[in-house]
Protein 1
Amino acid sequence: MSTPHGSWPSPLSAAGLAVAGTKIDGARYAAGGIWWSESVPQERGRMRVMHRDAAGAVHEVLRAPWNARSRVHEYGGGAWTVAEDGTLLFVDGEDQRVHRLDLGATAPVPLTAAGPRYGGLLVQQGRLFAVREDLRPDPHQRAIVEIPLDGSAADDDAAVTTVLSGNGFFAHPALSPDGARLAFVAWDEREMPWERAIAFAVDLATGARSAIPARAALQPEWLSDDEVLFADDASGRWNLHRARIPVQPAPPIRTPPAIREDSPFVDADTGGGLWVLGQRWFRVLDDGRILAVRTNGSDALVLLDADGTLLRELDVPFSGDLSLEDSLGSRALVAGQGAQVAPGLWELDVDAGTVHAIRGGDPVDPAWVPGARPVTFDGPHGPVHAFDHAPANPDVDADPRALPPYVVHVHGGPTAHTSGAQAGWITYFTSRGIGVLEVNYGGSTGYGRAYRERLDGQWGVVDVDDVLAAAQGLADAGIADPARIAIRGGSAGGWTVLSALVRGGVFAAGLDRYGVVDLRLLAEETHDFERYYLDGLVGPLPEAEQTYIDRSPLTHADRIDVPVLILQGSEDAVVPPSQSEAIRDALAARGVPHEYVLFEGEGHGFRQADTIAAAAEAELRFLGGVFGFDPVP
């Protein structure tokens, strides 16, 4: 007897899902071993730092209650680094001060005073640089700074040396080999880094600076005392470029892309949305060769000669959300995930051709996780890219006459993308007979600037049109049951969920995770990093106020006539609970079936094991009630 879709028995429990999703946040070679940071969902998502020594033994270096997490730009990143002698330098999530933990010491000591936030830590040649954000004055102040390692700035904020400051934003500090200059990326407070960002080099002795011509620069790295390698998308895709920077302030000389125009990888990106401070898209190896991520939907890893010649694409198991954390000789540490491997951290040797997992990265059974199928649908604004994860369970005899229910997933950002890599939450659904379609709607990264700019001024229009076209395409192709398609998304993805439900006609239910519901309220309450994000996505205020009203799902909540599940964190500073509660109240007033779950202590995105498990169970239970199946525990 066949088992109805949604009721398939699965070995993946919600509790197992919660503890399996270990997040890697940076990795380094130092003191003869490998260091990395990983989340501990059972400890409220605390980020601990681990060390694997030369003998292969693994030690927890940063223990509870310490938590390596930065809140610079709210999304953080680069919350820790380690010196060559094994001295750990980190930002504590509680006080946002930088601390030093000496090798073998039992307790860290503070290096900065309370008040400002720090992130993007970099230690080179015994010097510590960081991105600093101080939200106490008005206007708010941000800077690239150097922090003394002797603790003299712990009680004296003036002891922190400011390299460059302003009202804009900064990222990616990098010290030149001779220690004379610092390169970094900066952008205006009214722009987002993928719209326009400039790379700079500052003379640390004189303060003289040179701006490197770029459109949306990322990750400057020194090749010598007067030349940097960086990513820029002036051609429409992020590619690698070189610029020679004279010692005296002068216009830098920029060379053509480091990947040649006849390369098969030109139509791909080495770069992406700069949401967090620690991500790295390329590494210069000791012999000058370049290891680089190339993204066109999914990620590939390529090896370039020093002059930019493409040597080869590497055969690796990971293909999504890649970050090249560090390199040593011909070896590199890579964080990410893959189509048939769990998220993790790997070490690869480009000369030996070896790849092995340091943390996580466990292979998954292809019978349960056959891999995503890239698909493209015709939309009103052009092709819509997506990844289809079909239901898969080798222990179930599925009814061949029945089409499965589907969840159409909308990523957040909206300037972000999904890579088609396997994820525990996807398998949680597909192993139970529910398909998942991940949509990279217009506005997503990973397909070039033109695809990304489809969303300019059109948030709430293009994204909605694209997810509706993808869902309809699923139904028309006979892949999904047209009466049982739900839409799921968080943050900006939650906005698209609710906006699509307002439009109506395709989706039978909505799963909204801390989604935006009122643009004017968001403009008033959101944090600094995204304060002017809406200017590009919708329009500037007050001129575009009527557009803000017309586009907001809350304005048209009376058009939502299908059940909605709303999940929200109580400490969310990006999309505050007031947004979710407003749509909850509007649905309640009209008697629309809905459920609202507030998770205490959670911020923007769920990190705690109990929350992750409870959210997964709530979604499955909710879908079962709407689509008429009984989930099997």
Note: The mean pLDDT is 93.
Protein 2
Amino acid sequence: MYAAEVASRTPDRVALIMNDTGEQRTYREFEDAANQVAHLLRSYGLEPADRVAVFMTNSLQMLEVEGGAERTGLYYTLVNSHLTSAEASWIINDCRARVVFTTSTIAEAAHQLPALCPGVEHWVMVDADAAPFVDYAEEIGSQPVSHVPDERLGLPMHYSSGTTGRPKGILRPMPVADPREPIPLMKQAESVYSMRDGMVFLQPAPLYHGGPHSHLTASLRMGGTAIVMEKFDAETFLATVEKYGVTNTAVVPTMFSRLLQLPDDVRAKYDVSSLEAVVHGAAPCPPGVKHQMIDWFGPILIENYGTTEAIGATNVDSHEWLQRPGTVGRPIFGELLILDGEGNEVPARTIGQIWWRGSTNFEYMNDAEKTRSTRRDGGRTSTCGDIGYVDEDGYLFVTDRIAFTIISGGVNIYPKEIEDVLVMHPAVGDVAVIGVPNDDFGEEVKAVIQVRPGVTPGPELERALIAFCREQLAGFKCPKSVDFLEDLPRLASGKMAKGKLRALYTSEPSSTSKG
């Protein structure tokens, strides 16, 4: 979020545009506002390594706050704007925020926070309407636009998705660094993600998530113009690409699925030829979906696999992927290890747990036990429980997560393989495959389906979907039953919240059907 060099070189270049409203900031305007936020934070008495929480929807003000915190050596935590006040207050208290920035667009939840967060000293709201909140524009309006003395690089402290319990803050050592100095992200942005000076970057995802935040940071530091969508909509995405001549974007696989579900005439209506690079990650992308997107957009998809903890990452472009469909690439940092249950490395094409070596400089906020659980001797680290294998050339294939593996009659079944088949059925809008209790086999395979608009769920479709799987998979892998839900629970990161789905069935007999 530090763009001083670009602002001095091209002050009138547009840095940010809100897609819905058209509201924008030039680089000079963004830098001035970020500097005003920095002065405000200093006036509040915050010192390097203190904490700020940002509970806001996608907005220009949200990015200005991040810019001000980043140049004053602070940790800033971006809180999911869809959380309830109880959920948000847990994160605000856990990260020990001294200042909270929020917005009137989520005032109902925000107004409950002061009573729940006694450690917060200052409450700042865009368009504040009641105490103890003070108005954002008034607070920064009295501050100078000059840089604060002794600028220091600050860091985001992201929280994990919380798919297996409460989210955890990912705390990294605060560097003693000038924010003007190049940061490692910039090398990857150019060489790995094909980002460049003067690009037009479309950000369609919530900015409180780590991936979107990182890509927008890169856009600002590299001199791009970023268009920020307040909320993803498939046709609006295409229209925005055409309107602004978008060159770069970063998405999650569910967005690909939504784009492919548009009617052919809608898809054909928009010119997307300006696109140069489409980065995707955060969740597995079904190979069938990715093939269709490459056919449509061209071989410009770039896949990234990693964790919010940044202990290691892989990357693969479209040309490599087409030679090895399903791979998430080879490491771009960190040493990749595939280990068995005893911690031994396994041969190529043998499934094991994914570990990394060479990057363990983080801890989970206020949870030493969880931090220790991620470590093994020899500098090995694993955080997400993913399982997979590498081929003879070191390309990683992620098969699933340990927690999602279905064990039926003593045989391991990996839901992702089944989901990759079902998502290609023309009636399927979204899918999750889970294990449900079975008296004889321990677990059996169940598919939970969100149908596409206009499709009627029911027994006939259930039989058709099971038959569709049997055409492509061994019988023991195929669903024994299919349920239909109006909406499947996904996190903003694009990950399926399978814990919520599995909880529906843990105490029910396997024959139960929903929908």
Note: Residues 203 and 308 are 18 Å apart (CA to CA).
